[in-house]
């Protein structure tokens, strides 16, 4: 540790820390444009200049290491003049278009020009002009505003692992772009917008839509993949206008996948906003009382089952399970993909190392998964660990580019046991089992084989739990924790769709082919988008999307998180648990709660796990008993997600995601550039 004096304040910082970090430890604000704590140091904007005792000139604090006994001055006439000079140079070619810039109101250049710049300019020559670049359907470029901080270049190369951004020419002629104009291929490209300190890279879907001071901001959690990223939902006039990431070092750091960031326009398209009842073979609008009356007639005296969707919050699942239990039914299933998951123990289906635990791993075997598509933020975490050195990654399944080097160990489940040799010698080996690998006929055997691999490689210890299942959506783990699976004598989804029940309640279940439902089955669909399952229904109950309700979701590592209502549901749609509570009253099995707090109290009493808010997985494994298995098949693994952009009702309704699918699945970069 080094003792450093910052403006008379003595602080102790680790050896090797930068002067900028020491200044922040002392509570001093240091302006910067190129420096970012999660990127490598560039030292090229010079805005962070400070004065150091005995130094001949001001130094760039982001790139200068501390030394014991160093004295630093952050606000002297020399420092102030140096910063004013730097700001004057930055503004030489920066256009004065703040009134039409989407970055206005949250622009680092604006803020620092006011705080640290001069009140006038001596520049009288013509400003340079730079052609805007095409980098895809998500990011709008106005390259006249670029100040050459190179954050976008470093993020693309270091975090996203797709080094497509770069700089051509030098000095005043330097231009940032992709050289040959093309759409960026990273699933994390939207983070470039957050990183850009000026308005050079802005959101194309958000262009000229709103100003930040017009927005109401609500903290919530993302459910469009199973990472459980912390997000902020920005709303104006009852409409979601953008979704941004929040910092959570244990989960998503400060990154967010493009699907989670840009699919919000799907929240207002193809929505169900009123009840519908099938009359004479055709769906017709109805009142809530008529819809509930039709349900009573349709399910009376019939065996009933329920299938839950992949993004449903725990409260609604608890209410539906309680209602069916009161009706004497244990026909429940939340595994639309047919995954053979052993729910007898949570660590059979959780990401037990924790997302932050990836930082400790030194060998990983990925089985039947493409984390780059299924969970881009988790994949970036693996890449971050690889970049530090000392990590090797093996893959069993289709060959894909994960943005870091991998060793292909095989294509099918027969190679799982042989992967122990690849993991030998690792101190903290990790197995990453994709949910798609369990959605096979031999899924139970694959789960047991992967667990046995973890056991054989020393990944199941009291101080380390290296067995991890990577789920695909934010509602999948919570449903398993709740036990939304067949009870004693109950039927699973396959049996229900084979005619095992006479009435079927679909709660946001759009992830299977609705044509599999027998023609004589009475179907209640409760959800927020009108897709094939809603078209097959006899009664439609309009529900709320994840931004329209207070709810509890559980991410792939078992972390219980709360999302909050940002906007109200459209039309007559209501929060799903309220709809189920009203339906239970009509069905004569009234549920014993009228408020969300009362529901959560009952839910937590029955399942204490939901009371442990924002707690990561427990460390270590004390019981390495294997799950029930079977006979492994010979077929190679297939990846469950081929189209990253359109995977659920919200993203399939999104015009932005449709454009992305068109661009990325049918790439035509030269035509797009024109």
UniProtKB/TrEMBL annotation:
Residues 78-117 form the 4Fe-4S His(Cys)3-ligated-type domain. CDD domains: fer2 (cd00207), MopB_Res-Cmplx1_Nad11 (cd02773). The keyword Iron-sulfur applies. InterPro entries: 2Fe-2S_ferredoxin-like_sf, 2Fe-2S_ferredoxin-type, Mopterin_OxRdtase, Mopterin_OxRdtase_4Fe-4S_dom, NADH_UbQ_OxRdtase_75kDa_su_CS, NADH_UbQ_OxRdtase_ferredoxin, NADH_UbQ_OxRdtase_Gsu, NADH_UbQ_OxRdtase_Gsu_4Fe4S-bd. It is an enzyme of class 7 (translocase). Residues 215-271 form the 4Fe-4S Mo/W bis-MGD-type domain. It catalyses: a quinone + NADH + 5 H(+)(in) = a quinol + NAD(+) + 4 H(+)(out). Its cofactor is [4Fe-4S] cluster; [2Fe-2S] cluster. Residues 2-78 form the 2Fe-2S ferredoxin-type domain. Belongs to the complex I 75 kDa subunit family. This is NADH-quinone oxidoreductase. It comes from Roseococcus pinisoli. The gene is nuoG.
């Amino acid at each position: 540790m080094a003792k450093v004096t910052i403006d008379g304040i003595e602080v102790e910082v680790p050896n090797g820390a930068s002067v900028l970090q020491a200044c922040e430890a002392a509570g001093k604000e240091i302006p910067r444009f190129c420096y970012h704590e999660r990127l490598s140091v560039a030292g090229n904007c010079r805005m962070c200049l400070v004065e150091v005792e005995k130094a001949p000139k001001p130094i760039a604090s982001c790139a200068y290491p501390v030394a014991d006994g160093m004295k630093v001055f952050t606000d002297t006439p020399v420092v102030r003049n140096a910063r004013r000079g730097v700001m004057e140079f930055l503004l030489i070619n920066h256009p004065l278009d703040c009134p039409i810039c989407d970055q206005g109101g949250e622009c680092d250049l604006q803020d620092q020009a006011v705080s640290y710049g001069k009140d006038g300019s001596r520049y009288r020559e013509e400003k340079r002009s730079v052609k805007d670049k095409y980098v895809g359907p998500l990011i709008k470029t106005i390259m006249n505003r670029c100040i050459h901080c190179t954050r976008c270049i470093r993020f693309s190369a270091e975090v996203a692992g797709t080094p497509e951004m770069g700089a051509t020419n030098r000095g005043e002629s330097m231009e940032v772009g992709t050289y040959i104009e093309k759409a960026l291929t990273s699933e994390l490209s939207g983070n470039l917008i957050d990183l850009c300190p000026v308005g050079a890279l802005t959101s194309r879907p958000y262009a000229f839509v709103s100003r930040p001071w017009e927005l109401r901001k609500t903290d919530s959690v993302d459910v469009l993949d199973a990472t459980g990223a912390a997000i902020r939902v920005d709303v104006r006039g009852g409409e979601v206008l953008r979704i941004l990431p929040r910092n959570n070092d244990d989960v998503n750091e400060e990154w967010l996948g493009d699907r989670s960031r840009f699919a919000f326009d799907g929240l207002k398209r193809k929505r169900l906003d009123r009840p519908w009842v099938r009359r004479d073979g055709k769906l017709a609008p109805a009142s809530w009382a008529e819809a509930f009356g039709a349900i009573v007639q349709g399910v009376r005296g019939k065996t009933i089952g329920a299938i839950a969707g992949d993004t449903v919050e725990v409260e609604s699942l608890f209410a539906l399970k309680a209602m069916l239990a009161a009706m004497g039914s244990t026909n429940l299933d939340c595994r639309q993909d047919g995954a053979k998951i052993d729910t007898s123990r949570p660590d059979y289906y959780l990401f037990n190392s924790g997302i932050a635990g990836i930082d400790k791993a030194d060998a990983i075997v990925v089985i039947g998964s493409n984390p780059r598509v299924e969970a881009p933020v988790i994949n970036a975490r693996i890449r971050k660990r690889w970049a530090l050195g000392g990590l090797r990654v093996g893959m069993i399944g289709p060959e894909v580019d994960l943005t870091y080097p991998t060793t292909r160990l095989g294509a099918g489940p027969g190679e799982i046991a042989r992967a122990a040799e690849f993991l030998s010698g690792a101190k903290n080996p990790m197995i990453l089992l994709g949910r798609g690998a369990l959605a096979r006929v031999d899924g139970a055997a694959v789960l047991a084989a992967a667990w046995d691999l973890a056991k054989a490689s020393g990944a199941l210890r009291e101080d380390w739990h290296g067995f991890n299942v990577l789920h695909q959506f934010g509602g999948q783990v919570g449903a398993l924790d709740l036990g939304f699976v067949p009870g004693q004598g109950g039927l699973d989804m396959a049996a229900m769709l084979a005619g095992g029940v006479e009435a079927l309640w679909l709660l946001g279940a759009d992830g299977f082919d609705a044509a599999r439902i027998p023609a004589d089955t009475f179907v209640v669909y409760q959800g927020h988008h009108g897709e094939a399952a809603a078209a097959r229904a006899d009664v439609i109950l309009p529900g709320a999307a994840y931004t329209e309700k207070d709810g509890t979701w559980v991410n792939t590592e078992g972390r219980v998180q709360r999302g909050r209502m940002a906007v109200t549901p459209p039309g007559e749609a209501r929060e799903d648990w309220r709809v189920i509570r009203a339906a239970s009253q009509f069905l004569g099995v009234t549920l014993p709660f009228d408020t969300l707090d009362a529901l959560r109290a009952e839910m937590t009493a029955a399942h204490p796990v939901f009371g442990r808010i924002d707690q990561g997985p427990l460390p270590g494994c004390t019981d390495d008993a294997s799950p029930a298995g079977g006979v492994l098949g010979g077929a190679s693994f297939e990846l469950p997600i081929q189209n990253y952009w359109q995977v659920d009702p919200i993203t399939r309704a999104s015009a932005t995601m449709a454009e992305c699918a068109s661009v990325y699945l049918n790439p035509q970069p030269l035509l797009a550039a024109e």
